[in-house]
């Protein structure tokens, strides 16, 4: 029922606007017919004008009966836009340009010129008055009197012309009200002719007159010139007196008039103009002239402006019971954010930010929460307005958090708010909330990184010795924060297939959230592993006594084990995610994130992880001689579970590339990467074995032979499975072997070793070339046989 009620209200509003437009059109038709009748009676010039008008429209419209009381039988042509509204006229394509030309001429002649004219007139009066003041040409009383006379003369002219020239009269009326504003302001601010109370009454009366005229005549131009135009007057006649309280009271009266109009009419241009001018003037004053002694009144006027704009924007929708439109969302958020930003600046300037910022933020959050409840209680059909007010309450509550709390609590609350915004966007179908959820999540992630810096990198040596790995508050806070990211991804995955989910922007941000969540999970576990081994390293301290001094040493094996386990955990972490995604989730988003993480984790393990494993093996040999440097055989054998984990990761990555949700667009690159990784592991293991066996003189020889054998294997694979990329990779490997032979082997190996390696590599190259040509020949013969 709420949806039907919203639709009925919207249709009623459109009907009301059409009725108002219809009355306005009828009034303009009567005025045009009266002018035409008057011109007809004036002679040949009027007849010629009528002839030109008739020729311009007679091809495309039918005449309608005149409703003029003077000439009831006269047929007056109706403008194309009026006839079209009545369903009596259709515009052929050939007269479209003529109609547009006539409308542009009408707009300039009847609307634009008079607005520019009255604007220049008002500015001229103001500047002329300022000139007379500066040069003391006339006494102050005469200046004020002449100003009032000018305003009332324009007012009288506008009332005289109202019946026949409504648009022109409205412009004059707005200009006269702006002049009356200026004179009342100048009489108090410059000459002190009036008391503050009398000045307020006079300006209030002018405001009431402007509001009444704008609403009665249904002309927004009166409000623009009479109310919004009055903002510029104090600056045109500024004497730099610094009396900001009078200026802000003057602006408050104008804004109250705009508030009343906004509740009765949805003139958005009026609201936007007042909004921009008010906050711009206040912001410039705060940046240039604000002083600590004026803080109370500054905060008072700031809150008053904020409440006026809130009431002006919400009052119309609540009273008329109309749904909030998308265009209103930025205005509501902007008003709150500008108010918060200016208040933040004032508190900072007075040195009270630490004392009151948290309380102010909570107060603003409570205010928006009360508005949210009011909408829920008295306008339940306005769901968008309800959710917007709730979002503002949550937003300012989140801004209050860093003012009252610190550390991990801020991160937790920000990420929780991001989760709530995502829930509102996905479950309540409020798409705009996504634009607040994503920045909040990123803000929480940056806050989490700041927490990591304090909890992991800037802690004392004593804390490192005493902290328990995986059973500490930093790890718990980080784990809860990361879980919010996975909850967001779960909600997004559950809403897959909806229009909201299908947008490219949200999909791109989802990938960012997936990568951030996975990276954060890896990082916090990696840091706890690091702390575990680093704690053992610190606890292994022992002292070396020398003749005249002593120094501390540590068991370096724990340091090497820490680095090795950190890289091994990265491989195991990605392996578990690959298995879960293939057996359970089947998520393309996760597969895409794992693809990028593989490109980072596997090369890091090959370079740094294998190097740490080699250091562990070297330390094991040294520990046999130094009892303080403890090591075990199981620690040295850690390399083989690590190689097994890396091999499984490569296997499941290859399987993932064959799935429908695969993120690999080019599987050839993955296959080449797998072969490079395998060759790297074989080379590392060969070096390790020969180093343990103390066959250091033969490592380079056997390394070249290993590379040649693996290249030959790739040639065989490429030929048998017709994979050109493998054959090219093998050729690159052979090129590297030849380069190694020239730059290293021939200069460092013995004659026997040189002979052996050259013969083996040469034989493999010849065999590869022979097999390559044979396969090509067989392939060509098969093609010829098929053609015959």
Blueprint of the fold:
Layout: H1 2-40, H2 44-57, E1 64-65, E2 75-76, H3 80-85, H4 96-135, H5 140-160, H6 166-189, H7 196-217, H8 220-226, H9 233-236, H10 244-264, H11 268-288, H12 295-320, H13 328-349, H14 353-378, H15 383-404, H16 408-427, H17 434-457, H18 461-466, H19 473-494, H20 504-539, E3 542-545, E4 550-553, H21 556-585, H22 588-623, H23 633-636, H24 639-657, H25 667-692, H26 699-720, H27 724-748, H28 751-787
Antiparallel strand pairs: 1-2, 3-4
Helix pairs in contact: 1-2, 4-5, 4-6, 5-6, 6-7, 6-8, 7-8, 7-10, 10-11, 10-12, 11-12, 11-13, 12-13, 13-14, 14-15, 15-16, 16-17, 16-19, 17-19, 17-20, 19-20, 20-21, 20-22, 21-22, 21-24, 22-24, 22-25, 24-25, 25-26, 26-27, 26-28, 27-28
What does this entry show, briefly?
This protein has 788 residues and is an all-alpha fold. The chain has 28 helices and four strands. Helix content is 79%, strand content 2%.
Features:
788 residues, mainly alpha, two-stranded antiparallel ribbon, 4 strands, 79% helix, elongated
Account of the 3D structure:
This protein is an all-alpha fold and 788 residues long. The chain contains 28 helices and 4 strands. The chain has a two-stranded antiparallel ribbon. A hairpin with a 4-residue loop joins strand 3 and strand 4 (550-553). Helix 17 (434-457) runs parallel beside helix 20.
Rg over C-alpha atoms, rounded to the nearest angstrom = 41 Å
| Strand line-up across the major sheet | 1-2
Task: Estimate the helix proportion, in percent.
Answer: over 70%
Give the strand tally.
4
- In whole angstroms, the N-to-C terminal distance is 78 Å
User: Unreliable runs, pLDDT <50, ≥5 residues?
Assistant: 56-102, 498-502, 782-788
How would you sum up the global shape? elongated
């Amino acid at each position: 029922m709420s949806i039907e009620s919203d639709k009925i209200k919207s249709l009623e509003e459109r009907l009301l606007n059409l009725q108002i437009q219809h009355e306005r059109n009828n009034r303009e038709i009567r005025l045009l017919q009266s002018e035409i009748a008057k011109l007809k009676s004036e002679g040949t010039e009027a007849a010629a004008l009528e002839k030109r008008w008739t020729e311009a429209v007679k091809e495309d419209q039918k005449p309608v009966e005149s409703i003029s009381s003077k000439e009831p039988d006269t047929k007056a042509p109706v403008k194309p836009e009026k006839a079209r509204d009545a369903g009596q006229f259709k515009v052929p394509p050939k007269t479209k340009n003529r109609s547009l030309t006539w409308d542009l001429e009408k707009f300039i002649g009847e609307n634009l010129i008079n607005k520019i004219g009255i604007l220049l007139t008002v500015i001229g009066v103001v500047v002329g008055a300022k000139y007379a003041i500066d040069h003391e040409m006339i006494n102050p009383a005469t200046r004020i009197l002449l100003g009032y006379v000018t305003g009332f003369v324009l007012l009288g002219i506008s009332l005289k012309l109202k019946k026949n020239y409504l648009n022109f009269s409205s412009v004059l009326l707005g200009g006269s009200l702006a002049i009356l504003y200026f004179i009342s302001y100048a009489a108090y601010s410059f000459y002190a002719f009036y008391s503050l109370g009398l000045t307020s009454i006079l300006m209030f009366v002018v405001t009431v007159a402007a509001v009444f005229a704008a609403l009665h005549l249904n002309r927004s131009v009166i409000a623009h010139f009479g109310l919004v135009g009055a903002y510029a007057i104090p600056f045109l006649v500024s004497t730099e007196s610094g009396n900001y309280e009078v200026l802000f009271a003057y602006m408050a009266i104008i804004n109250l008039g705009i508030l009343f109009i906004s509740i009765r009419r949805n003139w958005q241009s009026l609201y936007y103009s007042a909004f921009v001018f008010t906050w711009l003037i206040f912001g410039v004053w705060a940046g240039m002239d604000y002083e600590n002694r004026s803080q109370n009144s500054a905060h008072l006027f700031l809150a008053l402006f904020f409440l006026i704009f809130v009431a002006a924007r919400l009052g119309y929708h609540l009273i008329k019971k109309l749904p909030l439109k998308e265009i209103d969302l930025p205005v509501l958020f902007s008003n709150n954010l500008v108010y918060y930003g200016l208040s933040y600046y004032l508190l900072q300037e007075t040195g009270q930010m630490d004392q009151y910022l948290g309380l102010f933020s909570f107060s603003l959050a409570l205010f928006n929460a009360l508005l949210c409840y009011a909408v829920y209680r008295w306008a339940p059909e306005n769901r968008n307005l309800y959710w917007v007010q709730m979002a503002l309450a949550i937003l300012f509550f989140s801004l209050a958090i860093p003012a009252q709390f610190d550390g991990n609590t801020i991160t937790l609350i920000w990420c929780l708010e991001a989760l709530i915004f995502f829930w509102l966007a996905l479950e309540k179908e409020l798409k705009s909330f996504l634009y607040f959820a994503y920045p909040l999540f990123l803000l929480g992630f940056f806050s989490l990184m700041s927490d990591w810096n304090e909890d992991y990198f800037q802690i004392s040596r004593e804390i490192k010795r005493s902290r328990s790995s995986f059973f500490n508050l930093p790890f718990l806070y980080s784990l809860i924060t990361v879980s919010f990211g996975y909850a967001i991804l779960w909600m997004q995955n559950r809403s897959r297939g909806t229009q909201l989910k299908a947008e490219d922007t949200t999909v791109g941000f989802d990938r960012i959230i997936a990568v951030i969540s996975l990276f954060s999970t890896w990082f916090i576990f990696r840091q706890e592993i690091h702390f575990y081994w680093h704690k053992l390293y610190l606890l292994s301290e022992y002292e070396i006594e020398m003749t005249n001094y002593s120094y501390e040493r540590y068991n370096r094996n724990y340091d090497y084990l820490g680095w090795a386990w950190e890289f091994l955990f990265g491989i195991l972490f990605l392996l578990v995610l690959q298995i879960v995604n293939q057996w359970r989730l089947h998520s393309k988003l996760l597969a895409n994130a794992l693809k990028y993480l593989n490109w980072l984790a596997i090369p890091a393990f090959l370079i740094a992880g294998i190097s740490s494993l080699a250091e562990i093996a070297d330390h094991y040999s040294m520990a046999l001689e130094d009892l303080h440097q403890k090591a075990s055989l199981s620690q040295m054998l850690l390399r083989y579970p690590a190689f097994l984990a890396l091999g499984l990761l490569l296997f499941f990555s290859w399987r993932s590339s064959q799935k429908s949700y695969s993120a690999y667009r080019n599987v050839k690159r993955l296959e080449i990467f797998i072969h490079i990784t395998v060759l790297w592991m074989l080379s590392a293991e060969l070096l390790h074995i020969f180093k343990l066996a103390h066959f250091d003189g033969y490592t380079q020889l056997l390394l070249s032979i290993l590379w040649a054998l693996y290249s030959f294997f790739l040639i065989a694979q490429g030929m048998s499975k017709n994979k050109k990329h493998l054959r090219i990779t093998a050729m690159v490997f052979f090129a590297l072997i030849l380069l190694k032979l020239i730059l290293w082997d021939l200069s460092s190996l013995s004659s026997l070793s040189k002979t052996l390696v050259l013969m083996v590599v040469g034989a493999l190259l010849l065999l590869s070339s022979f097999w390559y040509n044979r396969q090509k020949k067989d392939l060509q013969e098969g093609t010829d046989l098929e053609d015959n």
